[in-house]
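Hi R.,

Here are the chain sequences for the assembly we discussed:
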Amino acid sequence: MSDLEVEKLVVFGRELRAHGLSVTPAEVVTATTALQIIDTTDRDEVFLSLRSILTTSVDDFTIFEEVFKRFWNSSRSLSTSTAVRIQAHAPRQTSKGLGFFLEHWGSSFSAGAQPIKVPGASDTESATAKDFSEFTNDELEEVSRLARRMVRRLARKPSRRWRPVKRGHRVNLRRLLRLSLKTGGELIELAYKERRPKRTKLIVICDVSGSMDIYSRLLLQFIYGLQNSFAKVESFVFATSLARITGDLKNKTYKRALDRLSSNVHGWSGGTRIGASLAMFNDQWLRRIDKRTVVIILSDGWDTGEPETLAAALSLLKRRAGRLIWLNPLLGSADYAPVTRGMQAALPFINVFAPAHDLASLRALEPHLVL
Amino acid sequence: MREEVKQIQRMLEEQIYIADAAIATALYLSMVLGKPLLIEGPAGVGKTEIAKALANALQTRLIRLQCYEGLDATTALYEWNYPKQLLHLKLEESSSASETEKEAMIFSEAFLLKRPLLQAITEHERAPVLLIDEIDRSDEEFEAFLLEVLSDYQVTIPEIGSIKATHRPHVVLTSNRSRDLSDALRRRCLYHWIDYPSLDKELEIVRAKVPDIAETLASQLTSVMQATRTMSLSKIPGVAETLDWANALVALKTPELNEEIVVETLGCFLKDESDVAAFKAELPRICTDV
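And here is the predicted structure of the full complex:
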């Protein structure tokens, strides 16, 4: 194979990369080898061979076909990159400070929450079906109790894998035999094994913008409950930008946790930029996420940013996470449809789209948390 | 098209597998480059069938590893035959063999239970076809472990040492896309996607696999199947279902399809109550079209 052809393949690989396919140098090397063993005068064969080597998923097929057609038809030199990586941050809105917001909460604690009618409100009297927007302080505690209970049950779920233990119910034959060698093949010391518990990690990203006001107070209480019972929970809040609150929530009382929150988290304002906030999350925290991680996003989907930013951020998250759950409090209302641009952009990437407006809906979440 | 690719196509056709240029090319590359072939596609389009046909065509063994959640090295690679080891030790109790000799004895190949991956590596006669079926059902740890085995076709058993493949197996992995596979695994493999077949291809498959079928029946049946796949069903029937249905109709000696017969036999290709209801509602329209 001539150097020219190798060079052309390298450029082709770069072109694919520019269109969003992740082509590695190793794959280009394989492609060069492949071109030596196929009939390069048969265009279809070249196409099929390169496609099976340079793509890794059927989702890439359309892009590959387009690039292939354009690339191998035109002899003119190609521009190295046509795709533009957009990472422009919109100017930050003037911030009011989370402190202000939380102080405001504090006042509503002492005064007792006023029942506010919102689209998600329900008419039934029972506590489980009662909309969060109508919750009073006494019922708040129930929310974190529920969170703790759910999480305790989760942590106990056994996985299918075994681990050796000192005392158990199942005999670990492999180890038993090894031990018996000490005593010349006589079985004296027994070895046991048991099911390893599931290691599900949880990441909660909560929208605390103005439109979520009525709910976020309760959802934060819920997160507080999760945070204080589950070993691997990371929590974040966002409005126009993102803040990690894992450390702040790890506190004996909810009140103290809130105090810490208000003194540590800045950048609160009334607007919502979900896409930009999630992109920020991806930049800093994506490495924490693996396939054993359940990511929960709590938001009503009212995004003032571009839906493309949100879609891009979510698609990245989805690829890394074991499950992506979007809880939308408004979904509990019969006349709500997820038609906002943000929600529309987000839907294709979400595994579970569920309401989060009352205790029953949070309880229904439990099976989805087990991977 | 290169002669070898055509030859693969012919060989598969002899095994009654209708292969298009894409799959033949992918198999050819996978064999020559020595890379595993990852095949994805909806259920029942003949992903597993490819490996079987390939093994038959190459007249070699098919070693199958069915993946499931919780699959681990002891079920996929090897395990020591503990009961046999224990028995042996008991029998040897009175012998004069030293402890090290005894140990060497019970940790020899005779006491090794070879699981599919080890079998594939130690196959002596010729390279077998290793089918790793439904890899998306196993968990990530297993995927990582598999990567290791597939990268150098070598396995290390602490008590014995390294075992290297005498013949590099032809590896075919299938996935129903129930979860995303890791990038590392995808990169190591060649990729092929099988979709539901076109009307012509499906007709060809039915004719090849069910030779007794009457021509009109075959074309009616495939048209109904094609129409069924355009409906929004919870379980879209694959080619396997088409063939089941075709066989059923032949067994019932049906000369031609009509609404009544379709309703009587639709259990062959619809396996869900709500799907059956949806299908029945559409049936008159489908029948007039066909």
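Strands of chain A lie at 158-165, 170-171, 192-197, 201-207, 233-238, 242-244, 293-298, 323-327, 352-354. The first strand of chain A starts at residue 158 and ends at 165.

Let me know if anything looks off.

Best,
T.
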